[in-house]
Write a structure and sequence with these properties.
Order of helices and strands: EHEEEHEEEEEHEHEHEHEEEEEEEH
Shape: elongated
Number of domains: 2
Radius of gyration: 21 Å
CATH class of the largest domain: Alpha Beta
Strand content: 25-35%
Length: 307
């Protein structure tokens, strides 16, 4: 059984940044990247809103650079998925791929949140080629173009109004005959002239070619099938924080996001910290995830010094 002072679970912007700071603090952290090294960010292509890259940067390259930086300062970054965890008392015991066990004095949970998709093969085929779950991340690429947003809640309305300021036309695909969003958000959508709501519609297929998305095939509640021409297809049907493995021990909100103590990264379990999208239901940006990874590492350093 291996022992470490600091274990980081998750290899996205939060996890890698935590590893950079923890390494520089001399904590020799061990980081397990999980099933998706680089995190959800790697499902997109070019990142244009991360500071320091005026021409944009390839998402996978950005994550690789963060990972290399953490390794340079001494972090042990490993492939592997945490399959069970006992966070009942310190030191904490974590199982990797149901085989190896590692014991840690402090744990940073940076497992992120997974966007909910419709589950269509064509949706998966064009992911990163016109299919996106983040309008703030990818909306710029569709300036003065037509796009579609799936969903009828507050998130969908926020995404649609954001895109309406960039795009020529925004279709909202809503499966019911009403929006689930708050009245304020509904009013904002209704008063935006370049948003058109397609009521009682479900997506049958995302259409496209080798260059990417070209349209969407929809079916109305009455059975009528029709196509719309769009260049981008945005999912806004929610995210699921990857916290299930830890929710027996750490407090989570009604949607599963880990609750941290005020502006710190501390959870209700002494010695367990959370960073990134797994504890952030609001912003979900690479830069905010990285910042919270920094905070978590600093919090861990202070915690371990006090032990």
């Amino acid at each position: 059984m291996e022992k470490t002072r600091c274990l980081i679970i998750g290899g996205g912007p939060a996890g890698y940044t935590a590893a950079i700071y923890a390494s520089r603090a001399g904590l020799s952290p061990v980081l397990y990247e999980g099933m998706e090294p680089g995190g959800q960010l790697t499902t997109t292509t070019v990142v244009e809103n991360f500071p320091g890259f005026p021409e944009g940067v390839d998402a996978t390259a950005l994550m690789d650079q963060m990972k290399s930086q953490a390794i340079r300062f001494g972090a042990s970054v490993r492939r592997g998925t945490v399959t069970s965890a006992d966070l009942s008392e310190s030191p904490f015991t974590v199982s990797i791929d149901n085989t190896d066990e590692i014991v840690a004095d402090a744990v940073i949970i940076a497992t992120g949140a997974s966007a909910r998709y419709l589950g269509l093969p064509s949706e998966k085929k064009f992911r990163g080629l016109g299919v996106s779950a983040c309008a703030t991340c990818d909306g710029f690429f569709y300036r003065k173009k037509d796009v579609a947003v799936v969903g009828g809640g507050d998130t969908a309305c926020e995404e649609a109004t954001y895109l309406a300021g960039i795009c020529r036309k925004v279709y909202m695909i809503v499966r019911r005959d009403e929006l689930r969003a708050s009245k304020a958000m509904q009013n904002r959508v209704m008063s935006t002239p370049n948003i058109e709501i397609l009521w009682n519609c479900n997506t049958l297929e995302v259409l496209g070619d080798e260059a990417g998305v070209t349209g969407v095939r929809l079916v109305r509640k009455d059975g009528g099938v029709f196509d719309i021409n769009v260049d981008g297809f945005f999912l806004a049907i929610g995210h699921h924080p990857n916290s299930d493995l830890f929710s027996k021990y750490v407090n989570v909100d009604e949607n599963g996001y880990i609750i941290t103590d005020g502006r710190s990264s501390a959870t209700n379990v002494d010695g367990v910290f959370a960073a990134g999208d797994v504890q952030d239901p609001r912003y979900r940006q690479a830069v905010t995830a990285a910042a919270s990874g920094c905070r978590a590492a600093l919090d861990v350093e202070k915690y371990l010094l006090g032990k």
